[in-house]
Write a structure and sequence with these properties.
It is a single chain. 51% of the residues lie in helices and 20% in strands. The protein has 15 helices and 14 strands.
C-alpha cells in the first residue's frame, strides 16, 4: 500500500482526535466549504432558472427566429410578404427547427363603454403553437382558427382585462387606421392570459390573422412574416444563419460576384436581435453569479489554508520522524494534501446535500415567492444542470488543492532535529 495514503488514512480515521487544537478549526473549514458549495449550487440554479423562465416567455411571444421583409424592422405596420409553402418545407428540413408559423400585426385601440386602450393585435393562423399560452391562461381558453370562416374570438392579457374591466365572453370593438380611414372590428374575449412580462402583457392581444389581412387589404396569401421555433436555444444563431442562407436561395434580391455577397429580399433575425435589452439584462445575471462563485471559492480557500497550516504545525513531530526515517518532502506533502482532499470532499458532499435538497424543495413546493410585477415570475425559479453542478464541484476541489500546494511548502523548511524536539 502507498505509504502516504496509508499514513493519511491513519490521520483521518484516528479516533483519538479529542483535545487537538485542529479539531474545531477543521470542522469550521469543512462547514465553510459545505455552505459555500450550497450557495454556489443554489446561485447557479436560480440564475439558470430565472434566465430560462424569462427566455421562454419572450420566445413564447415572438418565437426563436422571425422571417420578415428586409425593410420591416420592428414596425407595427410591416410590409407584407408572399407566403411560400415550398420555402417552409425547405426550412423545416434544417436540423434543429421544430415548427414554423405565420403571423401578422397591426396597432389598434380597444374601446369599451368606460375606457379605451392602445394595443397591438397579433394575427395568428391555424398553425399557431399554443403550447406556451396554454400554460399561462388564467381564465377561459384559447381559440381555434379555421379556413371555413373568420373567428371573432380574441385572447387578451390579465392587465388589459383588468384595465378595461373585461371578462371571458365580453364583447368589445377595436378601431384601426388604414389609408387614413378608420376601421373597426368586433371581438369576443375567449381567454385571459398572464405571463408577468409587462412589456408584452400590457400591449399584445391575439386574434385570427384574417382580420389583419382584411384591415390591410391583403389577400389570404399575404402575411407579415414567419415565426420559427427551434429545439435548442444555444444553437439559435447557427440555425438563423442557415435560414438566411435558404432565404438567399429562395428570395434573391441582389446577387454579387460570389455567394458570400448575395442579399435576400427577406431576413431572418433571432429573438435576441429583436429584444437586445432583455437578453443583455439576462446576460448580466451571469456576472452576478460569477462574483458569488468567486467569493465562495475565496472563502473555501482561506478556510482550508488555515486548517492545513494548523494540521502541519500540530504534527511537526510526526513530520520530523518521517524525514528522519528517509521520507522526502514530496512524500510528506502528499500525506497532508490527501488529508486536505478528504476534508474538502466531506465539505462538498454536505454542501451538495444542502444545496440540491433546498433546490428540489423549491422546485416541488415553490415555498419562496416573488412579486411577479417586479421579478416577472411568481416564485423563485430553479433549473439544475448536472454538468454545471459537476463542474463547480470539480472547480472547487481543483482550486483548493492547487492553492494548498503553497502552504504545504512549509514542510520543506522543517528539519528532522528541530521537529523531533518541537513540543
Amino acid at each position: 500500500m502507498n505509504t502516504a495514503l496509508f499514513i493519511a488514512k491513519r490521520i483521518i480515521f484516528n479516533g483519538s482526535q479529542k483535545g487537538r487544537i485542529s479539531r474545531p478549526i477543521v470542522k469550521i473549514a469543512v462547514w465553510g466549504i459545505a455552505l459555500g458549495m450550497a450557495v454556489m449550487i443554489i446561485t447557479l440554479g436560480v440564475v439558470s432558472g430565472f434566465q430560462r423562465e424569462i427566455r421562454e416567455k419572450v420566445v413564447g411571444f415572438g418565437s426563436h427566429i422571425q422571417i420578415t421583409n428586409y425593410d420591416s424592422n420592428n414596425s407595427l405596420e410591416p410590409s407584407s410578404l408572399q407566403s411560400n409553402p415550398e420555402l417552409i418545407q425547405h426550412i423545416l428540413r434544417i436540423p434543429g427547427i421544430v415548427h414554423v408559423q405565420k403571423y401578422a400585426i397591426k396597432a389598434g385601440i380597444i374601446r369599451t363603454d368606460e375606457d379605451l386602450l392602445g394595443v397591438v393585435l397579433k394575427g395568428i393562423g391555424k398553425d399557431f403553437d399554443w403550447n406556451f399560452f396554454s400554460h399561462n391562461i388564467v381564465e377561459g381558453t384559447y381559440f381555434t382558427v379555421s379556413d371555413t370562416g373568420i373567428s371573432n374570438k380574441i385572447l387578451v392579457s390579465k392587465y388589459i382585462a383588468s384595465k378595461l374591466k373585461l371578462h371571458v365572453g365580453d364583447k368589445f370593438k377595436m378601431y384601426f387606421i388604414q389609408d387614413r380611414q378608420q376601421r373597426q372590428r368586433a371581438f369576443r374575449v375567449s381567454g385571459i392570459y398572464e405571463t408577468g412580462l409587462e412589456g408584452f402583457d400590457n400591449v399584445i392581444v391575439f386574434a385570427d390573422i384574417a382580420h389583419v389581412q382584411k384591415l390591410n387589404n391583403w389577400d389570404t396569401t399575404r402575411l407579415a412574416g414567419y415565426e420559427i421555433l427551434i429545439r435548442d436555444f444555444k444553437k439559435m444563431d447557427e440555425v438563423c444563419t442557415r435560414v438566411n442562407d435558404e432565404l438567399v436561395r429562395s428570395y434573391p434580391d441582389t446577387v454579387g460576384q460570389s455567394d458570400s455577397t448575395a442579399v435576400s429580399a427577406l431576413q431572418a433575425r433571432t429573438i435576441r436581435e429583436l429584444n437586445p435589452q432583455i437578453f443583455n439584462w439576462l446576460d448580466f445575471t451571469d456576472t452576478n453569479a460569477g462574483i458569488i462563485i468567486f467569493l465562495m471559492l475565496f472563502v473555501a480557500v482561506i478556510n482550508m489554508t488555515s486548517a492545513l497550516l494548523i494540521l502541519i504545525l500540530e504534527r511537526t513531530n510526526m513530520i520530523g520522524l518521517l524525514k528522519a526515517m528517509g521520507a522526502t518532502n514530496q512524500n510528506v506533502r502528499r500525506i497532508f494534501l490527501l488529508n486536505a482532499a478528504w476534508l474538502i470532499g466531506q465539505g462538498l458532499l454536505i454542501g451538495n446535500i444542502i444545496g440540491l435538497g433546498l433546490s428540489f424543495l423549491q422546485l416541488k413546493t415553490h415555498f419562496l415567492k416573488l412579486d411577479q410585477e417586479s421579478y416577472y415570475v411568481p416564485w423563485v425559479p430553479i433549473h439544475l444542470d448536472f454538468v454545471e453542478i459537476v463542474s463547480i464541484n470539480a472547480l472547487t476541489l481543483g482550486v483548493c488543492l492547487l492553492v494548498l500546494l503553497l502552504p504545504s511548502l512549509i514542510i520543506s523548511r522543517i528539519t528532522p532535529v528541530k521537529a523531533i524536539r518541537f513540543s
